[in-house]
Automatic annotation (TrEMBL):
UniProt keyword annotations, A-Z: Aminotransferase, Cytoplasm, Glutamine amidotransferase, Repeat, Transferase
Biological role: Catalyzes the first step in hexosamine metabolism, converting fructose-6P into glucosamine-6P using glutamine as a nitrogen source.
Ranges for domain SIS: 40-179, 212-354
Portion held of the full protein: 244 to 607 of 607
The enzyme's E.C. designation: 2.6.1.16
Organism: Erythrobacter westpacificensis
Keyword Cytoplasm (UniProt): yes
Catalytic activity reported: D-fructose 6-phosphate + L-glutamine = D-glucosamine 6-phosphate + L-glutamate
Name recorded for this polypeptide: Glutamine--fructose-6-phosphate aminotransferase [isomerizing]
Subunit structure: Homodimer.
Compartments in which it is found: Cytoplasm
Length: 364
């Protein structure tokens, strides 16, 4: 039931602090400050390549995980859309780990890719929200998300729970590969445990984002920019907006702007920039200035330091708490979800049942 909420999507956005905490509980041992995965009967340190396969929002969670696995655990990752995977005849390493990500556990292309990998002798891991689903049953290593039933067609809480599991998994790989000592593992565990509070802080901006919706609702096109692990968030933000408000939106890696999409910029195209402060912030600021010099209207989503440095001249800013890079994608998911939600409400579309879409895509 929707309770006091107007839509399931809104309810599910607000459930995120609770369900992310619930999910993290089964992957972390807070007392010992350790990451603890479900029983695994294969040697993680022997895995030297991971293949990730998923669709839609789950694919974007996989893209974020690629950054994490490579950065923290130094394990190379290949990632494919499930609908492309089998047909490109991928070369799979002997005994490699294939990781499938799916809210429903029933998406036809993802399930077919899983079965393909099984035939190719891969170890099958699945991050799945529905425990009784086909993927959950067929995986060697089931990594459940505890988001609870997700009713809104636009995925929200399943996404942040997927990220929570994938962050813990990447940290676990890093420990097993000898790249994190106990003290460093403890620091990561503490940061992950802060995620629910940071999600709450992000949700505090709900009203402010609702007030901003009228700036975006009239647009025909919207661009989202992000860098590093926040680049997939730009893609996710664009997908959310398209799905429920029917506004054309595209996500780009910030540095790619000048290689084409900047030609679209004028004062009618809002540009949403996802940019936590950090080593790459300066570069994103110059990408923003390129947009502003062409009359583009920027909405900057950053932390206090980022907004102090680059907020001037923006059409609007949304201030996120300052967070560790490992949890930034979880926290920055909230403002992009809220923005899509409020724009859709402003446009009067059917938020929970957008046209042409099904919750679970069971045809290839
Ligand atoms: O159930 P799955 O996670 O496998 O679903 C994958 C996509 O169909 C899904 O994420 C879709 O893109 C959502 N509607 C996005 O909000």
């Amino acid at each position: 039931e929707k309770g006091n909420y107007r839509h399931f999507m809104q309810k599910e956005i607000f459930e995120q602090p609770t369900v992310v905490a619930q999910t993290l509980r089964s992957y972390l041992r807070p007392g010992e400050q350790r990451v603890a995965l479900p029983q695994i009967d294969f040697d993680i340190s022997a895995i030297d390549r991971i293949t990730i396969v998923a669709c839609g929002t789950s694919y974007y969670a996989g893209m974020v995980a690629k950054y994490w696995f490579e950065q923290f655990a130094r394990v190379p990752v290949d990632i494919d859309y499930a609908s492309e995977f089998r047909y490109r005849e991928p070369v799979l390493p002997d005994g490699g780990l294939a990781l499938f990500i799916s809210q429903s556990g029933e998406t036809a292309d993802t399930l077919a890719a899983l079965r393909h990998c099984r035939k190719q002798g891969q170890v099958i891991a699945a991050v799945v929200n529905v425990p009784t689903s086909s993927m959950a049953r067929e995986a060697d290593l089931l990594l459940p998300t505890h988001a609870g039933p997700e009713i809104g067609v636009a995925s929200t809480k399943a996404f942040t729970c997927q990220l929570a599991v994938l962050a813990a998994l990447a940290a676990h790989f890093a420990v097993k590969k000898g790249l994190l000592n106990h003290r460093e593992e403890a620091i990561i565990v503490d940061h992950l445990l802060e995620a629910p509070a940071c999600l709450n802080a992000a949700l505090d901006h709900d009203e402010e984002i609702a007030d901003m919706a009228h700036l975006i609702a009239p647009a025909r096109d919207v661009l989202y920019l992000g860098r590093g692990a926040d680049f997939p968030l730009a893609l996710e933000g664009a997908l959310k907006l398209k799905e429920i408000s029917y506004i054309h939106a595209e996500g780009y890696a910030s540095g790619e702007m000048k290689h084409g999409p900047i030609a679209l910029i004028d004062d009618k195209v809002p540009v949403i920039v996802l940019a936590p402060s950090g080593p790459l912030f300066e570069k994103t600021v110059s990408n923003m200035q390129e947009v502003q010099a062409r009359g583009g209207k920027v909405v900057l989503i950053s932390d206090k330091a980022g907004i102090e440095q680059a907020g001037e001249g923006c059409m609007a800013v949304i201030e996120m708490p300052k967070v560790h890079p490992l949890i930034a994608p979880l926290v920055y998911a909230v403002p992009v979800q809220l923005l899509a939600y409020h724009v859709a409400v402003a446009k009067g579309t059917d938020v929970d049942q957008p046209r042409n879409l099904a919750k679970s895509v069971t045809v290839e």
